[in-house]
Design a protein that fits this description.
Elements: H1 2-10, E1 13-18, H2 21-24, H3 37-40, H4 43-46, H5 49-54, H6 56-71, H7 77-88, E2 91-96, H8 102-106, E3 111-113, E4 116-123, E5 129-131, E6 150-154, H9 163-175, E7 178-182, H10 193-200, E8 204-209, E9 221-224, H11 227-235
The structure holds ligand BJW and zinc ion.
Residues 19-21, 24-25, 30-33, 36, 47, 97, 99, 115, 154-160, 183-185, 187-190, 209-211, 213, 226-228 line the site of ligand BJW.
């Protein structure tokens, strides 16, 4: 912990990649692991364009339920610590795979959302994208004013990440002196590849997670524990 604190003090550019584990202490379920969302449901049945084409009702019921969980969730000390870190580091980028909006709620400004947002919807017919906070939707699947079917504004398996966001994330990983990987199982690509990009571009890479991942032995420092506890300690 002391070594990482020192690296943090010295670094002029810091990039952070977060995953579902960062929001676990806010009561938001993660995907993998014992209490994960994929324990009850297969990802292929819910988080792919094919699943949505086959059964939009099923997919939307799942997202509507997750939206209702998120509506009750608040940022935890880990989210707040990252927002505070942004104020202290001259060049700071927060890259998140999360779609819950909790980083923004905690006050983070420079957030790159790789996998979209739970609070956005996109029309399959007119392709208009917009912010919708309403829960539950009056009809499932919800409809656009144009009559088209709305889909969640997230990135499913097999879909490309938003190119401008990905480019910015890759640039941040390349130029970071210190790269933090927090609360992600690091199995979903291309997001998981950012740690390797940062490492091969010369960054020190630090992982914070309650359990080891397949990144843990390729990086400079692994800090084991909940991010809601370790992050506030790290910036103290
Ligand atoms: C704590 C904690 C606490 C718990 N404190 N820690 C074979 C090889 C390589 C790649 C592929 C392949 N086959 C297919 C692919 C591609 C695929 C992929 O990577 N698949 C792998 C799973 C094999 N990737 C894609 O399809 C991506 N697109 C793509 O590649 O496009 C190519 C393309 C180009 C051009 C045209 C077309 C296509 C898209 C990936 C989209 C992922 N989407 C999801 C759903 C988003 C919407 C939604 O939420 O519903 O994103 S899947 C899901 O996984 C979600 C997450 O963002 C993502 C990552 O999960 P995350 O955050 O790591 O969560 P968990 O649950 O896995 O881990 C939690 C961690 O927290 C654990 O480690 C815990 O220990 C830890 N933890 N409590 C600290 N308190
Ligand atoms: Zn429309």
């Amino acid at each position: 912990m002391d070594a990482v604190r020192e690296w943090l003090r010295q670094a002029n550019s810091v990039a952070v990649l977060t995953g579902a584990g960062v929001s676990a202490e806010s009561g938001v379920p993660t995907f993998r692991g014992n209490n994960g969302l994929w324990k009850q449901r297969r990802a292929e049945d819910l988080a792919t364009p094919g699943a949505f084409a086959r059964n939009p009702e099923l997919v939307w019921e799942w997202y509507d339920w997750r939206r209702s969980v998120l509506a009750e969730a608040n940022p935890n000390p880990g989210h707040y610590a990252l927002a505070e870190l942004e104020k202290r580091v001259s060049n700071f980028t927060l890259i998140t795979q999360n779609i819950d909006g909790l980083h923004e709620l905690a006050g983070s400004r420079n957030v790159l959302r790789l996998h979209g947002s739970m609070w956005r919807v996109r029309c399959l017919a007119c392709e208009q994208e917009r912010f919708v906070r309403r829960i539950p939707f009056p009809t499932i699947p919800p409809k656009c004013e144009c009559g088209g079917t709305l889909r969640p504004g997230v990135v499913w398996f097999g879909e490309a990440l938003p190119q401008d966001v990905w480019q910015a994330a890759e640039n941040a990983a390349r130029s970071a002196e210190l790269f933090l990987v927090i609360g992600t199982s690091a199995v979903v690509y291309p997001a998981a590849g950012l740690a390797q990009i940062a490492k091969s571009s010369g960054a020190r890479v630090v992982e914070i997670n309650i359990a080891e991942t397949n990144l843990s032995d390729q990086i400079d420092q692994f800090l084991q524990g909940p991010s809601g506890e370790l992050l506030p300690q790290l910036i103290a």
